[in-house]
Amino acid sequence: MSTGNESNLKLWWENGRQYISGVVSELKKVHWPGRTQLMGYTGVVLLSVAIMALIIWLFDTGLSFVLEKLMERFA
Hints:
Blueprint: H1 2-29, H2 35-74
């Protein structure tokens, strides 16, 4: 009985080792951005998020205003 469990454990351990080895190999192939490039990307992302937040806030405020006026008129 324990032979099957030991075999499964060895197989699991070997598969895990191969997976980690593959991950490390792929990470070595990645072109990592430099500091200035990374700062530029970060700025673009933060600006995009701020613009989208402003757009959503404007739509929310506008729709709230319109619905409030409709409720006052028809309620």
